[in-house]
Amino acid sequence: MSAPHLDHPFSGAFPELVHAAQAEEQPDPQLLLLNESHARELGLDPDWLRSPDGVSFLLGHGGGPTVAMGYAGHQFGQLSPRLGDGRALLLGETAGREIHTKGTGPTVFSRGGDGRGALGPMLREYLVSEAMHALGVPTTRGLAVLSTGRRIQRTGVVPGAVLVRTAASHLRIGTVQYARLLGVDGLVERLCTYARKRHYPEASTHEGFFRAVMAAQSATVAQWMRLGFIHGVMNTDNTTLSGETIDYGPCAFLDRYDPAMFFSSIDRHGRYAFRNQPAILGWNLARLAEAMLPLFDADENAAVDKAQGAMNDFPGVWEQAQQRELARALGTADTGIGQRWLQLLAEHAPDLTTANRLLVDDPGALAEIVGSEWVADWQSLDPEVPAHPHHIPRNHLLHEALRDAESGDLGPYLDLLAVVTDPFTDHGPAYRGPAPEGFDESFRTFCGT
Question: Is 117 annotated for ligand binding?
């Protein structure tokens, strides 16, 4: 079989937003993981992808044009006007999904970095993104992980690796910011029209597109909150226009329910702590509105009014998304019981995943944690008890599995991957419980750049 044909609609339509780039040659590439089911969904032959030509294709040497995408971003509240794919390449798209290869070497956006990926972070993103997909959360998908045969310098010397992921698109709020900063006449309008037609064809106006992004991202973040997911680096360049979760570098999950919890080593003041994620989403959407402002109306004052009006609706949009997820979690749309549930979680700080499962398995045991009064009131509503996952990517289990993988033993990682991609089946107590006491105090996550 020859290399698959990939289309290139984005780079063809927006030469201003991409730079041609070539993946570096790797000294000893080895295919470590291949998502065969997703490959088939994309029309790709898994057997061919395992061949030398297939490995070359995954590494960005398939013969087609490869580009680094440009974008800006507010990072921890500070605008960086020129970020972009500093260690990644867009290979093209097939079956409505873009294929993106991460860790392939420096590009014009690398800002002095080596452009390479470390094995641990690449494996982390693959596993967590596939777990999120199995949990029903909109997300980029992992297609493959390859070792490169390099040893690269991070906090120590670690194995190099490449992640291949797919997305509905890799367009971000930061992409719109970058287009606005370039100052090319009509570029922001063309970009937002492209994104609107691609992701929200039912929206007929730019304001409608903005509101669709708001609704999609609110729905996604509400799912994060139900599951206890902490993104860790909710910069505007990591907030997609499609609503998919993207970039899993410093991500983690709650064990003990602590709204103030954060794990990212670079988030020194907890800007992106668990409880702050809804407010940060609103802040990021405000930055999107600023970048899109001329598109809301030809009259500047009217444009400001419409953009402000859309942003004024965000609290209500978020509340609706949160209530949908609470209703999904509790099996009842009673808002009072949902708000009391959140208050009790914050008060008693149980293991969140266990508490959610007790709603299904043992309300009596749950009453011992959050109190019998709430459980009795909840049961009186005759809730339709929902399915809750038995398993999430527990921080301590993933940490141990990545440490073993970096030492050459992929076995624990593969075992964990099988569990978290089948989260509604009980795989046993070894994968169910929270981290040992004291683990959270010392655990930190890293971007891997």
Answer: no
Contacts of 447 (CB under 8 A, 6+ apart): 121, 233, 249, 250, 266
pLDDT digit string (tens) for 58-106?
999 987 899 999 999 999 999 999 999 999 999 999 999 999 999 999 9
CB 243 within 8 Å of CB 200? no
CB 61 within 8 A of CB 226: no
Please report the pLDDT score of residue 154 as a whole number.
Answer: 85
Are 445 and 249 a contacting pair, CB within 8 Å? yes
Catalytic residue among 237, 255, 267, 351: 237
Spatial distance between the Cα atoms of 395 and 415, rounded to a whole number of angstroms: 15
Residue ranges of the domains in the chain? 9-167
Positions in the chain whose pLDDT score sits under 70: 1-2, 448-449
Q: Over the Cα atoms of the chain, what is R_g? A: 22
Ligand-binding annotation for 84, yes or no, is: yes
CA dist 295 and 289 (Å) reads 9
Q: What pLDDT sits at residue 299?
A: 96
To the question of whether residue 102 is assigned a binding role by annotation, the answer is yes
Q: Catalytic annotation on 237?
A: yes
Output the pLDDT for position 63. 72
Q: 41 near 95, Cβ under 8 Å?
A: yes
The answer to the question of whether 87 is labelled as a binding residue is yes
* Three state DSSP letters for the chain: CCCCCCECHHHHHCHHHEEECCCCCCCCCEEEEECHHHHHHCCCCHHHHCCHHHHHHHCCCCCCCCEEECCCEEECCEEECCCCCCCEEEEEEECCEEEEEECECCCCCCCCCCCEEEHHHHHHHHHHHHHHHHCCCCECEEEEEEEEEEEEECCCEEEEEEEEEEECCCCEHHHHHHHHHHCCCCHHHHHHHHHHHHHCCCCCCHHHHHHHHHHHHHHHHHHHHHHCEECCCCCHHHCECCCCECCCCCCEECCECCCCCCCECCCCCCCCCHHHHHHHHHHHHHHHHHHHHHHHCCCHHHHHHHHHHHHHCHHHHHHHHHHHHHHHHHCCCCHHHHHHHHHHHHHHCCEHHHHHHHHHHCHHHHHHHHCHHHHHHHHHCCCCCCCCCCCCCCHHHHHHHHHHHHCCCCHHHHHHHHHHCCCCCCCCHHHCCCCCCCHHHHCCECCCC
Q: What integer pLDDT is reported at residue 155 of this predicted model?
A: 81
Q: What is the pLDDT of residues 299-326, one digit of tens each?
A: 999 999 999 999 999 999 999 999 999 9
